Amino acid sequence: MRLTLPEPALVLLVGPSGAGKSTFATKHFGPTEVISSDALRAMLTDDPADQDASAEAFRVLSILANGRLKRRLMTVIDATNLRANSRKQFRALASRYGIPTVAIAFDLAPELYVAHNEQRPDRVVNNDVVADQTECMREAMTDIAAENFAALHVFTDPVEARQVVVERRPPARH
Predict the structure, then answer these.
(1) How far apart are CA 93 and CA 86, in angstroms?
(2) Helix H segments across 47-109?
(3) Model confidence over 1-18: pLDDT tens digits?
(4) Most buried among 33, 84, 102, 142, by the most CB within 10 A?
(5) Which domains does the chain have, with CATH numbers?
């Protein structure tokens, strides 16, 4: 399967912990293109799981995203992106610079999130948190199709997500 993305774009990865978002981001995007909420929490506290640092991490994330989009650079937000209001704010930011927003959702079976989470080499998120995020994912999948994304790609199979080929479509010349 091929997944074609406009270049530049704001790409929102959507899914609970253990969905494979970071693995996907690392495989298909350059390290400067990906802004990770976990990485920012780690930079602030030396602990990517420190939720007390989330507000600061997301302020920094927004500043970085704004700077990249202003420069018309591919920007990937590696966070759960499960809240409709957060997705709306990111779409508005990209729109300010005439950049399309693409959502890539990892709508997997709930037991896969837990299994993948428990196999993570870097950190394991509490199973209660993953369960809560899984519930939020159900709601997100109900809402996301009606949201104003330039494109929405949904993976329901982790094998498909691992095997996809991401291509970039340069902007049309006027």
Answers:
(1) 11
(2) 54-70, 84-96
(3) 899 999 999 999 999 988
(4) 102
(5) 2-169 (3.40.50.300)
DSSP states of 106-152 as a string? Answer: E---HHHHHHHHHT-SS----HHHHHHHHHHHHHHHHHHTTS--SEE
Stated as kind and residue range, the H or E segment containing 44 is: helix 37-45
pTM, rounded to two decimals = 0.92
Q: Are the CB atoms for 172 and 100 separated by under 8 Å?
A: no
Q: What are the tens digits of pLDDT across the range 83-100?
A: 999 999 999 999 999 999
Mean pLDDT over each residue of the chain, to the nearest integer: 91
Structural contact between residues 4 and 168, judged by C-beta atoms closer than 8 angstroms: yes
Q: How far apart are CA 127 and CA 17, in angstroms?
A: 10
